[in-house]
Amino acid sequence: MRVRSERSGGHGELPPLRRNSRFQMLWMGAAASELGTTLTWVAFPLLILAVTGSAALAGLVGACRITANLLFSLPAGAWVDRWDRRRILIAAEVVRCLALAALAAAVLTGRVALWQIVAVAVVTGAADSFFGPARAAAIRAVVAPGQLPEAYAREEARGHAASLAGPPLGGFLFGLGRALPFAVDALTYLVSLVCVVRARVPRRPAEAAAERRETGMRADVMEAAGWLWRHRGLRAGLAFALVANLAANALLLPVIVMVEARGGDAAATGVVLAGLGLGGLLGATLSARIGRLLPPGRLMLAVVGFFALAVCATALPFGPYWPVVPLFLAMVAAPALNVVLRVLLARLVPDAMTGRVVSVFTLATMGLTPVGPLLGGLLAQYAGGAGALVAVGGLLAAGCAVAAISPALRGLDVPATTGSAPSAVPVLAELGREPVSER
Predict the structure, then answer these.
(1) How many whole angstroms separate alpha carbon 206 and alpha carbon 104?
(2) Nearest to 404 by CA among 310, 300, 290, 295
(3) Of 197, 169, 164, 196, whose CA–CA distance to 183 is shortest?
(4) Which residue, among 174, 324, 155, 297, has the nearest Cα to 239 in the 3D structure?
(5) Residue 285: is it exposed, middle or buried by C-beta count within 10 angstroms (0-12/13-18/19+)?
(6) Do the Cβ atoms of 321 and 272 come closer than 8 Å?
(7) Per residue in 127-176, pLDDT tens?
(8) Which residue in 34, 45, 151, 326 has the most C-beta neighbors within 10 A?
């Protein structure tokens, strides 16, 4: 059951979101977990480069994690709508904590092999596919409908703050000892586990429990897919996001290779990647103002188009730290897009369909992302870091040009508030960040 004092505020006004202890516990747990994830976002490719010396293999491991997430996403979404959501969150955090702890131990003993790194990537990717939809449903269950925009803005700020602090800290810890980033990541999952337990997440939508037992899993998934297909603007946005996420997930290795080619070390790489987090953190504070400038469809075209130009600008020959500037500018508008799109979808998705819609969205928008790290690694190996970034930016620009032709995407807008409670669902495009943890 939902706690009335936090969900509805009783018969009076809603209490401030800062007094919603259940949301605050979920937020703090995710903040710790995402900090650990951004540590290893840098540490994973650095470890693979140190072990194998191959950028292409580093990209392959990233692709394995995303592929595992996608393969499990559809059944995970259906199970989230059927099973105890609290237990799903707890189980996912336990699995991720143990996997990262095992990898840290293997690195510490000097016996780590490529297959072990791949195994950890696959296991954590599968756990991510359960945690993401379950947490999306949990946010919707503990936050009042009128406070969801504020909650989403805080979610954006948290993610970008982690992206700001995590990469330089990850590079620094990797320099001190290769096992340290992975050990810290395991610890952050433990912190998140404690916070999930204390948040008392509602188990499942009570009104849908009996219905879910009477339907098959395939019918459940097809119901969510059919719901999305009937919204033409969302269909156009999904297709555009598919290309945008492919390009965005190809950025990491070219940036790392380019910084190293210009004389930067692991700490310099972390500082450069922190530009994404710093820009996103500033953008989260401006998201309300930026989001009012354009409707969601046009805002999506504008943000991704500017991001494409910024990616190309990172290749300018101004030294190893130059990419901080365009990456910072590229991310300023992204949080506004994320918040607007979450509100748009929150006005439409029924509670009992939350897990499945989250999973179908993940598959629809991230279907090509396993190719992203591999593409980035291959381009970096054969065209160099700068050449790879120009190619990725060109792909994003071409996607914008094609998407701009669609009247359905240009007309995508936030509908009037309906009587049903909103739902938390993932955004169409998470630019520049791998879909891990809650993504």
Answers:
(1) 41
(2) 300
(3) 169
(4) 297
(5) middle
(6) yes
(7) 888 888 888 778 877 877 777 777 777 877 777 677 677 777 888 888 88
(8) 34
